[in-house]
Amino acid sequence: MNLSCEQVPYSRLAEEFGTPLYVYSQSALTEAFKGYTDAFAALEPLVCYAVKANGNLSIIKHFASLGSGFDIVSGGELARVLAAGGDAGKTIFSGVGKSEAEIEFALNAGVKCFNMESIPEIDRIQAVAARLGKTAPVSLRVNPDVDAKTHPYISTGLKANKFGIAYADAFQAYQYAAQQPNLNIVGIDCHIGSQLTDLSPLIEACERILLLVDRLAEAGIMPEHLDLGGGVGIVYDNENVPDLNAYARAVQKLIGTRRLKLVLEPGRSLVGNAGTLLTRVEFVKQGEEKNFVITDAAMNDLMRPALYGAFHRIEAVEPTGTEPFTADIVGPVCETGDFIGKDRRIACEAGSLLAVHSAGAYAASMASNYNARNRAAEVMVSGTQSRLIRQRETWEQQMANETACL
Question: Domain boundary at 224, 243, 270, which?
Fold first, then answer.
C-alpha cells in the first residue's frame, strides 16, 4: 500500500518538492482544534495554540481562521502571529525571560495577558508599563508542584523546574502584583509539562490552582480567567492519551459555580499527528554490529530523538520487495546522536522514501542549520491540493546575514 496525506500520495509530494520535506494535513489540524472546542463547549474556552510547537505562518493563519487564540513565548512568535492575521487580544505571552523590548512590543500590540513567572518579572513589566503610560494585563504562572509523569526535559511543574512561581509563594506574589499601579490582574495560570498521557496530574493541578483562586478571592483578588496550559499527549507509538471529554467534564466539575473563563494552551496535540517528515534513503550500510539506514533527513530536521530519545514511527512509503531487516535509521550529520530511530524493523533500499510520522510538533520549529544544512521545505495538503508553505532554504540564504572579514 502506498502512503498518502489526505488524497495526495507522499511519493508525488516528494517528487514535486524534494526531500527532506515536512507535510501537514489541513483537515487533521481542523479536527484536532475541533476536538478541544467540542469537548470543552460547555465552558466556552479560549483555545490558544502554542506557537512554539510549529510556528509556520500558514499553520498560524489556519488556526486563526478557526477562531484560535495563541500562546507565545517570545517577541518573534508574536510577530509571527500578527503577520499571519492572528489577534493580539487573544494572545497569551508566557515564558520565563521576557525582555523589556518584548514586553514593550506586546503591550503596544495589545496582548490579552502576560503570564508572569517571577518577582523580578513583575517589577520589569510594571516598569515598562509605567514608562509607556499603559496598564499591563497579567496573571501569574503558578508552579503547583505536581509530577506530570513525563520525560524530565518536558516536565515543567515540579519544584526543581525553572518555570512559574512556587505554589507556597504564589499568594504573596499575587498580593505584591496587586499593589503595582500599572498591572491589572486578569488571570491565573499553570502548565505542568508536555506529552502527558495520564489525566490525573492535570486534574490535581487544577484542584490546587482552584484552592489558590478561592484564597485570592477572600483577599479581594479576583482572577477573571483560569489558564490550565497545555501538555495533553498524542500517540507516537501505542500510548493511551487523555480523553478530552473526560478532561473537560472533570474541569467543569471542579470549576463549579466560580465565575472563571477557561483558557487552554494546546500545542503538540493540535499539530503533532497532522505532520509527517518525508526522507529519502541515501545508503543502506551493513556494520559489524549494526545495520544503518542513512537518510537525507537528520537531527537538524528532527531533534526530538537525539534530544530526549523520542520515538517516531517510521515506515516505507511504497513497497520495495526487499525483506525487512533491523537497523538504526540515521542522518548524515557528524554526531553519533544523529538518529531518527534505533533498532527498527524496516524494508527499504537506497532510494526508498520513508515517512516519519507524528512530526508536526517540535520538528520544523526546532530545526537548525547544523553542519551548514539547509532547512527543509514545508507543504500543506487539503484534499487533493497541496501548496508550498515554506520554501527549501538555500546556502545563500543561510549566509545572507554573515560577512567574511579579517
Answer: 270
Residue 348 annotated as catalytic:
no
Q: Is residue 401 part of a domain?
A: no
How many C-beta atoms lie closer than 10 Å to residue 230's C-beta? 26
Note whether 281 and 258 are same-domain residues: no
Residue 311 lies in a domain: yes
- 233 shares its domain with 352: no
Asked if residue 402 belongs to a domain, the reply is no
Q: Please indicate, yes or no, whether residues 237 and 285 belong to a single structural domain of this protein.
A: no
What is the domain range of residue 341?
4-22+272-395
Within a domain: residue 373? Answer: yes
User: Which residues does 106 contact at the CB level (< 8 Å), separation at least 6?
Assistant: 75, 78, 88, 93, 98, 114
pLDDT attached to residue 147: 66
Q: Nearest-5° angle of CA 246, CA 161, CA 222? A: 60
Res 326: pLDDT: 97
Give the span between the Cα atoms of 389 and 377, in whole angstroms.
8
Three-class SS state of 230 = coil
User: Do 17 and 37 belong to one domain?
Assistant: no
Q: Which position among 5, 334, 348, 405 bears the catalytic label?
A: 334
Which domain-ending residue is among 246, 270, 294? 270
> Cβ neighbours of residue 202 under 8 Å, at least 6 residues apart?
192, 196, 228, 231, 232, 242, 247
The pLDDT tens digits for 64-118 are 999 999 999 999 999 999 999 999 999 999 999 999 999 999 999 999 999 999 9
**Structure confidence by residue, pLDDT tens digits, 142-175:** 988 776 554 344 444 445 566 789 999 999 999 9
Peptide bond into 20 cis (omega under 30): yes
The total number of structural domains that make up the chain: 2
DSSP for 308-371? H-----EEESS--SPPPEEEEEE-SSS-TT-EEEEEEEE---TT-EEEE-S-SSSSGGG---GG
Question: CA gyration radius for the chain?
Answer: 23
Q: Can you tell me the distance from the alpha carbon of 319 to that of 299, in angstroms, rounded to the nearest whole number? A: 26
Q: Compute φ and ψ for 73, nearest 5 degrees.
A: -130, 15
Q: What is the DSSP letter of 288?
A: S
**pLDDT tens digits for range 252-266:** 999 999 999 999 999
